[in-house]
Amino acid sequence: MNLKQKYGNTALIAGASEGIGAAYATRFAAEGIDLVLIARRLQPLEQLADLLRKKYGIYVKCISCDLSAINATRLVEDALNGLEINLLVYNAALSYIGLFLKNSVEDHTRAAQLNMITPLNMVRLYGEKMTIRGKGAVVLMTSLAGFQGSGYLAVYAATKAFNRILAESLWYEWKNSGVDIIACCAGATATPGYKNSHPEKTGFFTPRLLDPEEVADECLKKLGKQPSFITGRGNRLASFIMQKIMPRKMAVNIMGDTTRKMYRL
Ligand SMILES: NC(=O)c1ccc[n+]([C@@H]2O[C@H](COP(=O)([O-])OP(=O)(O)OC[C@H]3O[C@@H](n4cnc5c(N)ncnc54)[C@H](OP(=O)(O)O)[C@@H]3O)[C@@H](O)[C@H]2O)c1
Fold it and tell me: Which of 12, 37, 40, 197 most suits a substitution to test ligand 1, by most atoms within 8 Å of the C-beta?
C-alpha cells in the first residue's frame, strides 16, 4: 500500500520551501498526494509548487504564514477553508547558536513558539481529525541535539526534546487508531539553513552530512513502524555511544564542546 492509499490525499508541510521540507513535498508529490505548503516567503514556495504541479499534476496550495505567531495554527486553518489534512509534517524550526544569555527572552519565546507550541497546536487540531477518521500520519522533525543537554543550543535542543517525547507519547496513545506518528531525529543535513550557519567539521562526533532527500525517504520508510528514529547510520552509531555507553556528563560535555568548535564560539 502506498502513502496515499494508507493515509489519504492531502499533506500539509509546515516549513516546506527548501531543505528537508521540500524533500518531503517532492516525495509526496511523486505519489500523487496533493500538497499544502507553508513558509514565510511566498516566492520560493510558489516556485516549488509550480515545479511539482507541472511534474506530477497534483493540486498545491501555498500559504505564507509566520509559524512563530501565537495564532499561526488558526491562520493556517482559516486559509485551508475546510480542506482535509491527511498527512502533517512539521519541519520549520528556529535555532539560536550561542550562549543562552546572549539572546533575549523574546528570541527564546519565538523559538519555543515556532518549534514547540505551533507543532503542539497543529498535532492537537489535525491529529484529532485524523483519529476521528481512523487514518492519517504525522511527522515531527526533531534533532540529535534533543537527546542530551546541548550547550550553545540550549533552547533549540530543549524544544527538540519536547517534539520527540510528544511524538513517542502519541505513538503509544494512537497505535490502534489508524494514525501513525513519528519523531524524525535528524543529524547534520545539507539544507540551506544548515549550510548558512557555516559549521566547521570537528571530528568523530561531527557525522557525515546527509542529503534532505535521504532524511525524508528514511523517515517515510520508518513511519508506522516505530515511535522515533535517528537518520543515518553514522548518527545512530554516535548516538548509541553517547546515550548508552558514555556517562551523561560526558555526553553533555562532548555535545557542548563540539558545537563550540563547529561554530568557533
Ligand atoms: N539541517 C540540519 O542539519 C538539521 C539537523 C537536525 C535537525 N534538523 C531539523 O530539521 C528541520 C528542518 O531543518 P532545515 O535545516 O531543513 O530548515 P529550516 O531552516 O529549519 O527551515 C526550512 C523551512 O522552514 C521555513 N520556516 C522557517 N521559519 C519559519 C517560520 N517562522 N514560519 C514559517 N516557516 C518557516 C523556511 O521558509 P521561510 O524562511 O520562507 O519561512 C523553509 O521553508 C528542523 O525542524 C530542524 O530542527 C535539521
Answer: 40
